[in-house]
Amino acid sequence: PDVWPTSATLEYPALTLKVGQRLPIRATVLPANYNQGTPRWSFDKPGIASADPNGLSATLEGLTPGVTTLTFTIGNATASCVLTIVPKTQPEPDVWPTSATLEYPALTLKVGQRLPIRATVLPA
After folding, report:
1. Does the residue 117 lie in any domain?
2. 74 is in which domain, residue-wise?
3. Matching InterPro entries, A to Z (predicted)?
4. pLDDT (tens digit, 0 to 9) for every residue of the chain, 124 residues total?
5. Are the beta carbons of 34 and 79 closer than 8 angstroms?
6. Is the Cα dihedral 14, 19, 25, 27 positive or negative?
7. pLDDT of amino acid 47
């Protein structure tokens, strides 16, 4: 007998990805013994994210900043996930000191005497 899916869920109801980030997502379909329907993955706003589908799973990738809803459909069962794509953060460049100077070029201290001294490191 034909067994159609009655429900579908995605493992994440919402996700945030960076541009260029990839993440797998899986769908669960009930009843488990369904034998009708073809899995389909779609977005309400194409171009913000992509899905590389493989049956009940897909690999998502953030393409450009924005918000889109991923919908998984099989027969009359659907599930969705709201995807927020954020910009890829740029790493801070390494900044190495180019010079260091001390407040006093020379000091003479007595035994046990203390004197605070300040160092200036550039660039600040």
Report:
1. no
2. 7-86
3. Big_2 (IPR003343), Invasin/intimin_cell_adhesion (IPR008964)
4. 999 999 999 999 999 999 999 999 999 999 999 999 999 999 999 999 999 999 999 999 999 999 999 999 999 999 999 999 999 985 656 777 777 788 877 878 888 888 788 888 877 6
5. no
6. positive
7. 96
* Sequence-distant (≥ 6) Cβ neighbours of residue 106 within 8 angstroms: none
Query: Tokens representing 119?
Result: 């160092």
User: What phi-psi label fits residue 66: left (phi over 0), alpha (psi between -120 and 50 degrees) or beta?
Assistant: left
Query: Which residue is associated with the tokens 């493989």?
Result: 54
Element (H, E) at 48: none
Tokens, residue 103? 């407040």
Q: What is the CATH number of the domain that holds 50?
A: 2.60.40.1080
